[in-house]
Amino acid sequence: MATLDTKSALLTEAETLVRTLGYAAFSYADLSERVGIRKASIHHHFSTKEVLGNALIDGYLERFSAQLEELSAADMDTSRKLLAYGDFFAGSLDDGLMPLCGALAADAAYLPASMQRRVKKFFELHLTWLEAVLREGAARRQIKLQGSAHKSALLLLSTLQGASVVAWALKDPSVIKPVFRQLVETMAK
Amino acid sequence: MATLDTKSALLTEAETLVRTLGYAAFSYADLSERVGIRKASIHHHFSTKEVLGNALIDGYLERFSAQLEELSAADMDTSRKLLAYGDFFAGSLDDGLMPLCGALAADAAYLPASMQRRVKKFFELHLTWLEAVLREGAARRQIKLQGSAHKSALLLLSTLQGASVVAWALKDPSVIKPVFRQLVETMAK
DNA sequence: ACGACCCTACCTACTGGTAGGTAGCATGCG
DNA sequence: CGCATGCTACCTACCAGTAGGTAGGGTCGT
């Protein structure tokens, strides 16, 4: 029990650290202080920082894809579905954190290859989900696509991702949702 | 002469380092290796890393605001003006780098306060410029604003910023321009 | 008794930054 | 002219601190 507690505590704290300081800037020392075990003991749970980083993304990816699937199955109007997507994307920012993979993408060149691959996969997952929703919405004539579904998916994801960067820099998280809503409304018929 | 050469070489190399590795992840050692002077000698030109970082943003900001002013004065259709803006924003990404302030915004919490302020100022500069262009375009009836000029400016900047993150993660810089173009076209009457 | 868990103590590599010195060029002065 | 002075630009050598990671031992529940 204690094992799981500590391990998940490590993951939780590591995530907030990465999402505020970035992957390069956070250290095992920071982490040990927050969790309350010695620095060396972290290695018992995560042999290297890279392993920790990968576990972080894997967990994030799993949570996200579960939510996406759930949302996908929901019986909802397309634009409402997109807004809900934006909400739980932006929701993580309410506590004043960057989205994990946005934070990771920034010092991407510094990341080990295994992590870079996962980050890429994360974005691809989002894009394929968005594309499917958009295609379905277009088929049902609930939305009107300007360009291809692929391009529109990119537009939606980019906006959400970028809005979180801008919001973070301006120290004003409230800008995200209205911006995204405006974009979705533009797409709605 | 050699002074200026070395100093500007330091700035140039530091910029590419920040824009690939992030601010936290690059070191004076990396920089000294690239420029070809010893690590300690960098301190002669930039007493601390923070001073270097600030000089970096200041230069970037100066260059950008000059370009913005030039573009502002140009006699152009509004949507063409926006596309040109997008082009020189995306232009810096053709060499496979993140935009400077995007890279900096990511590990913002790690940055010294003086740098955080500059990053914020950078985004504000962009937003006010975009807002002015949008307002003018709306007055001339060259574009049709869905929401407020402020919100639309945020949307444009966010999209550009986010697209560069996504492009960087996917290792495909070609996605940026079409995405931005689609957004601008949506705004065009 | 065994393994999970966490500890102290330690390692090497490297961080940003400092101390002090030197080569070369410019300026000023007798 | 010769020569001291002082500046720029860089050097070597080093600092304390911290990075991620390792070795080995103690404690505790099963």
Write the SSE topology.
2 copies of one chain form a homodimer.
Chain A: H1 2-21, H2 28-35, H3 39-45, H4 49-73, H5 78-91, H6 100-106, H7 113-139, H8 149-170, H9 176-187
Chain A binds a DNA duplex (30 and 30 nucleotides) through helix 1 and helix 3.
In a few lines, what is going on in this structure?
The first copy, chain A, is mainly alpha-helical and 189 residues long. Chain A has helices spanning 2-21, 28-35, 39-45, 49-73, 78-91, 100-106, 113-139, 149-170, 176-187.
What brief labels describe this structure?
189 residues; mainly alpha; DNA-binding; homodimer
- Which parts of chain A are unreliable, with pLDDT below 50 for 5 consecutive residues or more? none
Beta-strand percent range of chain A: under 5%
Succession of helices and strands of chain A = HHHHHHHHH
Average pLDDT, all residues of chain A: 92
Q: What does this molecule look like?
A:
The structure is a homodimer of 189-residue chains. Chain A is mainly alpha-helical. Chain A has helices spanning 2-21, 28-35, 39-45, 49-73, 78-91, 100-106, 113-139, 149-170, 176-187. In chain A, helix 1 (2-21) packs across helix 2, helix 5 packs antiparallel against helix 7 (113-139) and helix 7 (113-139) packs across helix 8 (149-170). The longest helix of chain A has 27 residues, at 113-139. The mean pLDDT of chain A is 92. Chains A and B meet through helix 6, helix 7, helix 8 and helix 9 of A and helix 6, helix 7, helix 8 and helix 9 of B. The structure holds a DNA duplex (30 and 30 nucleotides).
